[in-house]
Amino acid sequence: MRLTILGATGGTGTQLVRQALERGHEVTAVVRDPARLDVPAHERLDVVTADVMDPAAVTPAVAAADAVVSALGHRGTGPTTVCRDGARSAIAAMSETGVRRFLMVSAAGMVTDPGDGPLTRYVAKPILQRILRNGFADMRRAEEEVRGSDLDWTIVRPPRLTDKEGTGRYHTAADRSIRGGVSISRADLATGILAMVPDGSTVRRHVWIAH
Q1: What is the pTM (predicted TM-score) of this model?
Q2: pLDDT tens, position by position, for the chain (211 residues)?
Q3: What is the residue extent of each domain of the chain?
Q4: CB within 10 Å: which end of the chain, N or C, has fewer?
Q5: Please, which residues have CB within 8 angstroms of residue 144's CB and are 6 or more apart in sequence?
Q6: Per-residue CA distances from 205 to 61, 95, 191 (Å)
């Protein structure tokens, strides 16, 4: 497959680029600063310097893709529109080029779900939602943009991310949370996302993923 990855210099984006190349895919990594991409040069890797908030700049990078994966995120706790603006830009670029498949990394912590255990639902998530309220508000608006599009989208909702080694073992659930799923490594998240790309059963679904 030909994959375009937005947010390629982040922890999850880096894992996506590395693993996609290992699996034989052709990868276009869209970055602001190529020096920050911690992936060796590869014959199947095309690094494109572009502002992901600008649809005109992103359009050439997605034009030949079979799928686009957004791993964009905000690292601070202040107000932000990174995820919403990035989603809008990707949707516009994909609509322009006719590319249909879109996967976006969101966050499980912003959604309180009946599948959560009592401690998670009434203690852990309310605290997290207060601390990360700005980032979650941005992510929520990004999800709304994606759901409002006519793309073949999948919104991926992981819990707390770690930098542990990948195990290849994880759980997924469509449109509901995973009881006891409090963390996942970025490596296993990337593995799961790449498995979802060709999986038609995940189209227009919110997929929780966790250890």
Answers
A1: 0.95
A2: 999 999 999 999 999 999 999 999 999 999 999 999 999 999 999 999 999 999 999 999 999 999 999 999 987 788 899 999 999 999 999 999 999 999 999 999 999 887 788 888 888 888 889 988 999 999 999 999 999 999 999 999 999 999 999 999 999 999 999 988 999 999 999 999 999 999 999 999 999 999 9
A3: 2-210
A4: N
A5: none
A6: 25, 20, 18
Distance CA 45, CA 40 (A): 9
Q: Which two tokens stand for residue 22?
A: 């290992």
Cβ-based neighbours of 132, under 8 Å, separated by 6 or more = 77, 109, 110
Residue 14: which of 160, 166, 156, 152 has the closest Cα? 166
Place of tokens 């911690």: 38
